[in-house]
Amino acid sequence: MDTVNNRPVGVFDSGVGGISVLRELYRLLPHENYVFYGDSANAPYGTRSTLEVRQLSLAVTRKLLSHQVKALVIACNTATSAAIQQIRQHYPKLPVVGLEPAVKPAVEQFPQTNIAVMATELTLREVKLQKLFERYQDQAKLIKVPAPALVEYVEKGDLNTPEVRAYLTDLLAPLGKLSSIVLGCTHFPFIKPALEQVVGTQPRIIDGGSGAARELQRVLTKADLLNPAVDQGKVTFYNSNPDPAEITLSQRLFQTPLD
Which residues bind substrate (predicted)? Predict the structure, then answer.
């Protein structure tokens, strides 16, 4: 019997990186059903214009609405920055949860230290992140670290290769001592093992996936939309790239240990 409560939660990303968020959603809310849409045919979003990302995000939202989703999680920092306001305007009755780099928890845990914020170029230049930086600029030294190639590595399934580690070394070695590294792109948690090999365990690595999961739980509870089912929910993957390897990669990433 179809009810609003057992309808799926829609989750989307510019590619497969948002599966790192999907994993957190499923961990906290395992009885929910999920439809994940990766827009890998148009990845990466982070090097596109804000208008392009907005148009792509609205198109993906329409696709997910065709699956009768009861809520939407924008599992992409870039798409959140560029499009969450417009998505909420277009669909005012749809609960929408977005992502933002976990700058606040990093600063609260490590005040007056050097904190690297790794993200795509678009995320780093958008007003949303600029305001976040301004809010905490007196409480820590926040260092912007554009890392566009990491998105492409993850899209290819290269998570801990010599090339990935060399790229991370080139990015981070010049920054000196860091208290923490904020992963401001949902692709980046998948390279956490490689990152730990490069920087060791001293800088704390922080991402926003668990925060998004808690926000979805809050939003669904407030709207009385939690699924009352006791069975494990179903997760369905779609991708704009018609190559079946994309779905195989999606399933692999969903099951990949990150810790």
Answer: 13-14, 45-46, 77-78, 186-187
| Residue 185 appears among annotated catalytic residues | yes
Could you list the residue range(s) of the whole structural domain that residue 172 is in? 103-207
Same domain? For 24 and 54 the reply is yes
Catalytic residue among 107, 118, 185, 235: 185
Which helix (H) or strand (E) is 237 found in, with range? Answer: strand 235-239
Q: How far is CA 66 from CA 63, 107, 152, in A?
A: 5, 40, 29
The yes-or-no answer on residue 44 being catalytic is no
**What does the pLDDT look like over 137-166, one tens digit per residue?**
999 999 999 999 999 999 999 999 999 999
Domain assignment present for 4: no
The alpha-helical segments, DSSP class H, found in the chain are 19-28, 50-65, 77-90, 103-109, 121-125, 127-136, 148-155, 162-172, 192-199, 209-222, 244-255
